[in-house]
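Input set for joint prediction.
Command: fold jointly, output tokens.
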Amino acid sequence: MADRNAAAPQTSTPSGAQAPAIELIRVNRRFVTPDGKSMTALRDFTMTVDDGEFVAVVGPTGCGKSTTLNLITGLDKPSGGEVRLYGKPVDGIDSRIGFVFQTDALFPWRNVVDNVVAGPLFREKPRTEAYALARRWLARVNLAGHETKYPHQLSGGMRKRVALAQTFINEPRILLMDEPFSALDVQTRVLMHEALLALWTESGASVVFVTHDLEEAITLADKVYVLTAGPATVKSVYRIELPRPRVAAEIRYQQDFIAISHTIWNDLRDEVMKGAARSEAAV
Amino acid sequence: MSETLAPPIPEFRPGTSDAEIEAAAARAERKRRLTVRFWQVLLLVVLLGGWELLARAKIIDVFFFSSPSAIAARLYQWITQGADGTPLWFHVWVTIEEALLGFFSGFILGILAGVALGRNRMASDVLTIYIKVFNSVPRVVLAPIFILLFGLGLTSKVALSFVMVFFIVFSNAFQGVREADRALIANARILGASKWQLTRSVIVPSAMSWIFASLHVSFGFAIVGAIVGEFVGARHGIGVLIQIAGGAFDTAGMYAAIVIIMVVALAAEYAVTIFENRLAKWRPAPLAETH
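tokens >
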């Protein structure tokens, strides 16, 4: 725990003087589908992420988990309620945010190092400095030597690591991840968990990690939010008291992990069934 | 508990070592290539030879069909003595020049217009119907109008080439911009891209794959535009050669001009393919696996 506090610039106690990194306060999100129907994705949704905290969001498929992330980035606006970053309402895309997508959001026409260097160059860093930084980050994700390859020449896990380097190079204070590893095979996923935890521990960023994989959520997070089936609201919040640093490759067979997993799954299971029943029923 | 293994099977049957099967595969491939070449050459000889024989035996009328020897003779005459008072290379050069000028101007302006309209929803919604209307006119009918407007010289042909290339490249660029991957755009915006940086670093490269798809077709059309323009009215060019030959009932001349067009078009195809390959190295090769 000590390393994370050291990395975070200010006190990270929930009742401390500093505002939470992210707050969603009674948020509603409603939009009109292409068919012209009104659809409520989120209702009365309240979530808090403290500075330096790793929060996971799990829920049945299609319940609106990704919508929460879009509201935090400022790409979407809430229909009701408020979204705040460090106490201030969200207004446009905040430069302190980093985002890792589920699909490959690498630029396929650029090679690896040109992809990683995109963030600093967009933010007007001088080229030599930016490229040196990019090479350091590639080394940190164990991709040194692959700088001139193109994304299509890399495996899924390697592409994900390039995406992580591309995001972390901007040193985001807030990291949003939308099911980033769900497209990878299970074995690669474990390696990614290790990589992510290592990068996160050093950076001290506040994270919102959306996933449908409960065990992934428990492995990584300090706090897990369980959402109801759509229109989604928060069903329950669980604090994960497993000690850090966590070893992703071993943790799922520890007794305390299994106990927590069982508890939360019992909660989530109902929502999964409800969500499935609803989507299979005719409109 | 480990199991006892069966007696080891000999690794390779005699005559099937790695080196041997590789050599056998290479031999089979060479043989296949030679067979294909053989049939290609045979087909050519049969067709040309047959044509020549039929012409000489007066089974087909030379007036309409000409013969390979007559076409070759006309080509030789053009090469050594020029055509219609001008050297042959000059005619060919004029057509190529018109096609190149039309192609590059149409290409660049097509991309600019396609990207501008693709980025601006309102403008594209308003203008699309008018573009559709203009697009429906076969552009070759514009040739006489351009001759009236620009005269018999280079400009009218370049204009026709330009118009043919522009609409193809424009619609491909427009489509490419519209179809740019939203995740890439979102990613770039979050990484810090301004609207201009977004257009330059994400939208345009995204649209390039659509634009390259149209490269071969549009270059072909550039040549068509130049030649058709020359048909309608010109002093020099391959189209002029065809027209003069036609006017003089010189069928050998007409076919000779067609042979020249074939050579030019193939050379252009080849050049475009090389250019395309160099720029497309970021694309996955078809059927390539990365694991």
